[in-house]
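ok so for the tutorial part 2 we go from a plain amino acid sequence to predicted structure tokens. step 1 is just haveing the sequence, like this:
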Amino acid sequence: MLEYGTLTGSPITLITGEVGAGKTTLLHKFLKRIGEDVTVGLVSNAHGSRGELLRWALMALDQPADRDATYVDLFDTFQKYLISEYARGHRVVLIFDEAQNLSIESLEELRMFTNINSNKDELLQLVLVGQPELRDIIHRPELRQFAQRIAASFHLSAMDERTVTAYIGHRLRVAGARKNLFAEAACRLIYEQTGGVPRLVNQLCDLSMVYAFSKNQKTVTLATVEDVLADGAFFAAGAFPQEPVT
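step 2 — the prediction. this is what the tokens look like for a chain of 246 residues:
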């Protein structure tokens, strides 16, 4: 959906997901595959009053944003840059990471940025990446015009138990293992303790492998993962409801 949004000229593409779900990993993958005819600016955790967002955008595009310049001057610089890129056959994509931290006023300012577009040609496309609460913010009545300009969206959910097991096996194969070194019961407990969040799965698996190595074990068993949890080595333990393992 991220690629679809940018390829089809979506004014705004929205990507959300829980903390640790892989949003930043997805962005890096996307940036590696993007074409040479696309100019990308990445803004991480933008904040500030009206006009500050425009400065963030200009700096992300390596454009001058003089401290003493007025908002009109900055907007003129921004608009001229978009037109010049369009004349070169380039599209400009601005990505805002951690977009859930943007205020209502900032989101409305972003909508105004897309007004630079004319007819069927998109001079500027916006990609907003953030935590689930970003969707709740955008659904507010005062942002209905903003919501109408979102032509592509996707929510990165946590993995289910089957996917966690497959994910662990995949990561091991990429690292050179010939089989999944984690017992089925161990994978189940890892899923229960992490809620299927990739970042947490990585952490608990790493710790479990260290424990198995220290005991000269060639597989990670249920008892291995239980030892990690009992020692309190996995800081996020207990963050998700635990079901009994049978």
